[in-house]
Fold each of these.
Amino acid sequence: MAHKAIDLACGQLALTSGEIAEVPCGCLTEALIIDFLYGFTSDWGPSHNPASWLNYTNDPARFWHFAMSDLVEGAARLEIPLSAAQLAQLDQLGAALREGNRRVNLTRITEPADIETRHFLDSLTAAMPLLDQLRAHAPLRLVDVGSGGGMPGLPLKIAFPHLRVTLVESIGKKAAFLRATVQALGLRDVEVVAERAETVAREPEHRDAYDWATARAVGSLPVVVELCAPFLAPGGLLVAQRSGDLDTQLTQAAPAFKALRLWSRVPIWLDLPGLGADGGRRGLIVGEKYAPTPALYPRRPGIPRKHPLGRPLGDL
């Protein structure tokens, strides 16, 4: 395609998708994601009637609003406005995730539309309990435990650039992907730590030091609590993104909340476009740290998963 001339005499290209889209002038490489039919449009006669058209525009905000409409709509419902520059960064993150997934197992979600909702929008929901502080540009420190492909830490950093973010990822290849992606996106105040959370949480610069901790796919709720809570300073919030029966999960994890000095808040249920596409209802479990972490926790690497602090399901 790089060797095929494109005639924009009429400002249009034919698409196969049956929809209208726009590409900013000077950014025609973005059209590669739309899978369009190209040719010499000025040679087409009046009878040529393609199913749809690709228009070019000088307004990048209109382009990103169209291309990522579910994400934009969902973020607006969360009261998290995203600029054209932020949407472009998220699009770049999505491209990096798809490319990196060819070499490292980062995610099973690879379709662009699903990445925008089930990764990016889902990540932004973790900000809900702290929106007032984030809007006030409070200098919050966020730790994302078991970051994997950077969710939710990187979308949150893009949406709230003033955040100071630490991504904890024990698998070396995934940590290398995170470092390369942070550099490519030009993100500042983002640290990638390639170590087990149980080990990092005992280092003085990380223990009882963060305002906010997140984790998406690190295990059951008791495991999440033990791995995340030691990072939090008193008053800090654990925001765990979960699906299924949140009340039952809270009951199961009650011993972990008590041991790690967390109060549990009422779960927050989510109703946003594209979330719950896998059949499970999504929500947030929030815990507030009320005292420093007891010296016993976290236990040795691997022990929180082998012997979680929660109640056996049969006892509930």
Amino acid sequence: MQPRSFIDEVTQKEKSAERVDNIVFIDIDRVLYRGVQNDDDISSRQCFDGINSAEQERLICDLDSIKTHPHIVEMQLDPDVLHALPVKAVAAAMNFNKQAIANLSALFKEYQAKGVISSSWRRDVKMKENPALALKQIRAVFQIAGFPEYESIIGFTPILSEAASFFGPSTSFLQRGNEIESWLLDNWRTVKSYAILDDEEFNIPDFFRGRFVHCKTGYFASASHFKQACDILAKPVDDQNCPARLTWNAIKNNSVDFDYPYMNLERMTTLRLLFGYSNKTFLEELFSMHEKHAHPTQLVLWSLVKYHPENRAMFMEKLINLLRSREMKLEILNLSDNGLENIDDLLSVIDGKRVCVERFLLHSNPIEIKNQEKLSSWIRTYPVPLRLFMNISMSENVVKAVIENENIILHAEEKYLPENEKLKQKLFSQTRHEGSLVRSMQRSTCVQQ
């Protein structure tokens, strides 16, 4: 009896799924509520909608009085829950944006949705210390806010440890995409569809751009945000025509000519959640499938998964071995941090002939390439058109190589260029870089792929 292939295993796992839940991941500050920066800030704002000014003054002088306000007393909340609930949370709940709450309620009713809290409020209700009490507290917050479906709040995304942060211990909040992904991987069998509401991007678009409602203005009170969330929840995760599924089918069927070769982090995340696989296992199996293809791979994207640092070394080794074994055209190659340790080996196989790349993203945080001579030599002689995205400080030799090779279009901010005005002026004068180089005096953003 032959062992089951990865494709057979995926098929069997998918058949075992019972997808019934529509999930809404909910941020709170500036999605449902204006947000405050600290406990003291709450007393400096008009936080009590519908309360006369004299009553406001009394409550602001004695914030503990909020818990005895008639609006709270009428709800007959569990005394233990109310006692444990931070005062600022109660005050904030009384001032959630009414239209945002109405829109959220309508979304829940339309799709029988369940809510998962991804907000920093997870820390305010001490989710890690007492998950059961924290859930009762957050439901109480939504009940106070006038959200009828408060019992449909079912939990929280995990708070990932600061030690595991890609960006460092002080910025672990930037892992919100990882935290949502972690919850989804734990519950993949039952998730029918999901939408993410947040006022900040963090790293959410890298994983979930197609399911992200970016509430930049107007909270979730905006009609356009509400419509976008409805449209997202109407799309099941197992949609046979979504780009991730079409990409998977093309790889699975060993297709040479296909329209969906683009395996970026978002699509890889979609497939992993669809099939319930860890990042490492899924990467290994995808590489294994490519290694078995008899034909040269016509077009594929392998993006180094920068938010899973534990898998970078394995990924780079497999990628380099794969490139050495066949002809391949890479649409995007995205390198950061540990991937840079292998850059000499990688550049040696990307010759622009047998193996070529159209867009090369190079960024490091905080590691810099110590020796850029190999990189400058590679750039100088690269024989076909290449868009080079550089989010690292460049040596003069790298910039000179870009200037000398007309195949190269550099995308970078001026702050990454060497302090050589003549060299910078020469680079900026080359028309092929027009629109791709950002002067420091302009409003600049990080170069995106």
Amino acid sequence: MTSYVLEDKDAYLALVDRFPLVPIHGERHLNQAITIIDELTGREALAPGEEQYLEVLSDLIERYEEERHPIGGASPAETLRFLMESNGLRQADLAHLFSSKSNLSEVLAGRRGLSQAQMVRLAEYFRVSPALFLPASSNTRRIAPRRTSVPARAPSGRRRSG
């Protein structure tokens, strides 16, 4: 039997004391877990114990969401629309990721597919996997988008770095 060494036990246990690593039961519990995830992922750097805690908590959230909120075969347009609505964005906010605003309109209407380059740019912008924008038939395991916020926007409409 192999034993596992917990790195940075103090940081890990401080987080466990704040939010115990137990199966998630209910939306309120899920929202508390997401708050912790957002706090940890918003930091510049994490201690090894914090990284280990984050990994386990992410797994617990994923398991809960897969059981309670399964995502069917959402189209790329539906996925994009969901991410826009979740982040309070309008078409004009994403126009710089497409060659024209009309191309974005056609994608959202389902009349045009996303190019590979657009999938990559959208994935970077929303901080999700590019696979999320693949058509359902190409992506056998659809994962619900994580509830993340989009980086703050500079007045010019471009993302701020950092």
